Amino acid sequence: MRTRGLIAVLLALTVTTVTGCAQSVDPIERLGKKAAQRVRPLSRGPGSPGSPAGPGRSGQEPLPPVVDHVPTHDKVVFLTYDDGAERDPRFVDLVRELRLPVSVFLTDSVVGPGYGHFARLRSVGATLENHTLDHAALRGLPYAGQRAEICGQQEKLHARFGLRPRLFRPPYGTYDTTTLRAAADCGITAVVLWRAAMGPAGLTYPHGAPGLRPGDIVALDPDESTGPSLRERTTALLRVLRERGLTVGKLEDHLEGLGGRIGAEKPPTRRRD
C-alpha cells in the first residue's frame, strides 16, 4: 500500500497542466501528434551537417557538435546520468513507472559487474550512451589514447547490448579537438555536456545565467553516497520542473530532429568531479 501511495505521489509531481490538459512526461504523449512529426531523422544530404560529404576533415567524418542545450520550442529539458556506480533498483522502478526518457552515460571501469542493472534500466526506457572505458580526463592525451577510451567503450556496449551509442560525454566535461576527432572516428554524432547540474543541494549552473529553460541538458551528479539517492534527487528535480511548467524529453530524438541546428555555439569546456 505504501508503494502504491508513493508512486501516486510521484506521478502527481511529474504532471504539468497547460491550457487545462494533463501532460505526461512521455515526450510523444506530451508533445502531441504535431510535435512528434517535427522529430525527423538527422539529414544526410550532400553538404548537410553530419553528412560525410559535408564540411569536415577531408574524406573523413565531420567533427561532432558539442551541446549543452538543444534549441526547441517544446517545454522540455533532458535528464542525463553519468558513470554507472549507483545502481539502486528503486531508480529503475521510478523510470518505469513515470516512463522517464533518461540518458545514461556509462564508464566500463565504474560499471564493473553491474551491466545487468543497466540492461534492466534500458528495458524500461533508458538510453545507454558512452562515457569512456576508464573515466580518464581526455584533454591533452594523444589521439591513440583518446580513441582507445571512446572506441573501446563503444565495443564494450556493443558486446553487452548490441548497440553502438551515437552520443558521448567526456569525463569531467573536458575535451579538445583531438577528442572530437577521435569521437567522430568512433561513430559519435554529438558530444553532450550540460547547462545545469542537480546535486544534493539542488540545481547549480556552472556556466551561464541561472534558471532552467526549454532545451537545457541537466546532469544529475552521480554517486553521492552520503546524500540523497539517485531516485530522491530525480524526484526533487521533477518537482522543480513541475513548478516551472517543464517536463522531460528524450535527448536522442531531439538531437536527431534538430539536425543542423545543433552545434552552432559550442559550450565551453567545464569540469565536474
Automatic annotation (TrEMBL):
UniProt-listed Gene3D superfamilies: Glycoside hydrolase/deacetylase
SUPFAM superfamilies per UniProt: Glycoside hydrolase/deacetylase (SSF88713)
Domain NodB homology: 75-249
PROSITE patterns for this protein: NODB, PROKAR_LIPOPROTEIN
One Gene Ontology biological process: carbohydrate metabolic process
Annotated signal peptide: 1-20
InterPro entries according to UniProt: Glyco_hydro/deAcase_b/a-brl, NODB_dom, Polysacc_deacetylase_ArnD
Key words, A-Z: Signal
PANTHER family from the UniProt entry: GLYCOSYL TRANSFERASE-RELATED, SECRETED PROTEIN
Name used for this protein in its record: Polysaccharide deacetylase
